[in-house]
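Schema walk-through. Below, the input block comes first and the output block second. Nothing else is stored per chain. Lengths vary across the set, and this one has 704 residues.
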Amino acid sequence: MAEPFLIIWLMDQVNSDNENALHLRTLVANDNLQTYHSWDECIDFITDIKEISMKIYLIISLSSLTEASETLINTAEELSKIDSVYILCSTASFPAISSAADTKIRGIYTDYQSLVNQLLRTMSIERYRYRRFASDDFTVTAMMPLPIVAVTTLQSSSLATNTTTTAKRQEAEFMYSQLARDILVSMESSETEMLEFRRQQYADNEAQLRFIQEFEEYYESCNAIFWYTRDTFLYRLLNKALREQEIDTLYSLRYFIRHLHLQLKDFHSKQLSANTTAENDEIVTVYRGQSIKNEEFERKIRHNLGGFLSVTTFLSTTMVKQLAAVFGGNGSEVDKQSVLFQIDIDQSVNKFPYANISTESVFGEEAGEILFTMGSVFRILSVQSAGTNMWYIHLKLTGEEDEELRNLTEYMKGGLDKFSPEIHLARLLFEMAQYNKAVNYLNIAMQDSQLMEDCIVRVYIYNELGDIYGAIGEGDKSAEYYRKVLEIDLRHLPEHHPALMVAYSIIAVMHKRDGDLEQTLFYYNKMLEISLKHPEETECSDADSDYKNIAVVYKKQKRYSEAMEMCRKALEIQFETLPHNHPSFSTTYQYMSELFAIQKNYEEANQYLQKALEIQKNSLSPDHPDFIKTYKDLCLSYYKLDKFKESLECMKKANELRLKHLPAIKHSNADAANNKFQKRIQEANELLEVIQQREEKSTPADND
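--- output ---
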């Protein structure tokens, strides 16, 4: 594989560096080092290079700083093909040159050995980076060995200097990643299970198979950090899976994830204990450099001043600012911003384990590597431009969180605490609308014969499968699992037991499917009576759902005022018992909107749909299928209010989400459905363009 860099050495005419150049040729491939004594010849060579992705490291030897040499350095700064400049000179201080924020100068060295040590480190980093780009596809780009920052914050105001309180929010995706992490870390696994899975994956990759064999022979949990920092599938797979929430990959790596997290936690505790009180009061500053896609940078960093930056991966940083700057790049990529993060660590914040891993890392102690565990949260203190497409971002490790999201996270943790970790994970995946994966983990749970001996477990799993298959349009399978629940003898249980409540709910649903609304009401009212009779039983505190279910039946019976009353009662209970951003609120608001629309109160209907949408944005992932109905209803609502532009935008969003979820949802003719959704999106775009053109024509010309 060709090297991704080229070293060009412009030698001093007075003090020849030929001997050092010969030494450097023994350290790098001969074709990767070019030497020149003439600046003009050097420039001609650089400008003739056609390979766009080739990084050029320029070494300039100077006997002293003169006006001519300063001009030469400034010219090197301006040449876009030059990535980094290293100066070898007996005079180490060039304040006019090295103080610039966006300088390409990576160091001014008085001796050759110091320069070559830094250059070799940079080359090693670039090799890792090149290999990573060659084999992996990134949504957010970073440079090895530092893992990708997966930034998770809500959209903020358009100006960094005028950030509203909404910028202090964290996305719901971060909550789901934390819940998944907690479940995975609690799971038991074995090295054999993990390695067998990887051997199957890398059956045709001799290099990785050799690494797997080495891992099997030498790995111990006490050196998880060392194995993490090596350039192998462990690093690449783990951070990509954490960033993109690839649950199956994370599940297969849970054995290693648990060890890495616990070793980092142990290091953190020991290092703080070893410090004096004065040392623990000090602020430690570390750095992280990487390039970030323009849209992501604009939305989640530049316009989120004062907000949170949350990291779903393990996050590696360095105490060496100059080293981090190498990872950040020089702003030459058009679609990305080069970012250098300064991170201040208040050592009194112990919520997120981090540790100095220099003694364990493959990269040694010179890098001063500080590794943060999954889920660390930082506050964005400042965002400063450092040149074209280059930024200096000041962060602070914080124990603060989005309070509303924290409350919702804690509430959902309680709902996931059922039976086995695989069942916990399946429940979480169901909430995330990853239905097929949820079925997979329920199937894994059902392979545990001892677990399945418990009739309560069987009720829970069969009901969950019935709900999942119902959500993806497979009614027959849904009914099959619901019937399995009803076949289980539950007569020995008290009336308020959750398993009996599940059975009553299934009976009500089946009566509703058959059109028997009176029997449906009978069972929903029975459930409501039990819920209100046993409010102290947390597992029976679903009176809000009972009220909503009754409201749906009343609506079908055209008893609209009674249906609205049931919705209001559901809301009262939700405000008393649920975090105010819980998804259940959005369902209630949607029901109320439908009732207002039936009564032709379109303004009120639209307002409640807006409330539902806001709750969903704060509690669901951005592409959750629940948004489809909300946008579809908003499309109609705006149309009724003669707001055609807003109606078309909602129509477009609804159909984009339908397309995204089409593979998971059963359709009698998927191709026809795909064409229909594509056509609607195209029609919406065409009409929106017409509206925009009319708006532009109707806008008075600026006569000033």
